[in-house]
Amino acid sequence: xxxxxxxxxxxxxxxxxxxxxxxxxxxxxxxxxxxxxxxxxxxxxxxxxxxxxxxxxxxxxxxxxxxxxxxxxxxxxxxxxxxxxxxxxxxxxxxxxxxxxxxxxxxxxxxxxxxxxxxxxxxxxxxxxxxxxxxxxxxxxxxxxxxxxxxxxxxxxxxxxxxxxxxxxxxxxxxxxxxxxxxxxxxxxxxxxxxxxxxxxxxxxxxxxxxxxxxxxxxxxxxxxxxxxxxxxxxxxxxxxxxxxxxxxxxxxxxxxxxxxxxxxxxxxxxxxxxxxxxxxxxxxxxxxxxxxxxxxxxxxxxxxxxxxxxxxxxxxxxxxxxxxxxxxxxxxxxxxxxxxxxxxxxxxxxxx
Length: 353
Prior knowledge:
Blueprint lengths: L15 E5 L3 H12 L4 E5 L2 H8 L6 E5 L7 H11 L4 E6 L4 H9 L4 E4 L4 H18 L4 E6 L4 H15 L3 E6 L9 H15 L2 E4 L11 H14 L3 E5 L6 H13 L5 E5 L12 E4 L4 H9 L12 H11 L9 E9 L13 E3 L1
Parallel strand pairs: 1-2, 1-3, 3-4, 4-5, 6-7, 6-9, 7-8, 9-10
Antiparallel strand pairs: 10-12, 11-12, 11-13
Helix pairs in contact: 1-5, 2-3, 6-10, 8-9
């Protein structure tokens, strides 16, 4: 039973697709059909592996077999629909009964195809449900600004993962290569690895570590990134910080982002007790993936502030100011247009003080 309209000649350039298929041959055929038209395709063989992939985000579409060896594919669809509301989901099955189709749609699938399915038909359906999802979604363009590699991931990595899960476009701007904290080439490589895992574009500058000042050298790269991306949300350092680079980047961002409707400041390990957040973002389902992002910075593994138990404890502490969650990232509001939606990530995960 095919429940989607065809869209001949559709292309999937730049789309990330997760294929969940235990049969190796079927998985390869599906990946070839989608990858041959521009999609970046990842294949997993089990439902449990797919569910582990949920929190990582940065997936635009899921093609899932109903019959998986370890669990019902419908459960996998429900997990993705809850965690990633904007993702397009297409279910595949050898069961042609109407009841299975109904169950797939109830589980959150956008469409349902009976196997075997022609590659062209699969491509058309995936493209069509992506188009429908994207036409309904309110996408944000996010710019996260940090002075050094790993600043952004520590301060708002969970929130960026939530943005990715909602299909938002993310750019990470890192103004120095952190030469005071390690070999710049290695730290740059780590930054690229983290950005790739997040599904973000990375802009890596080479300002002098520990010597940043508020002026054109800091303002211009931020303004250029805002202009290039059309950012609607900017995250940056708080001014309540004992690190001079963080304070300089905060002030430079305020100048560069003066026309951006929403600007927020995140906490860093060097933030002072004067850091005063009034937004508390639920990152419970993304905390493990945030820690995995931070683990990309292996040259910094000996830093006490990157120990997993401290990262968890910090997120747990801020959750006392929120509702119905165990882990939170706190934000200071620097600017927030009154007409904008309450949820920064488009998922209803915003809690007020």
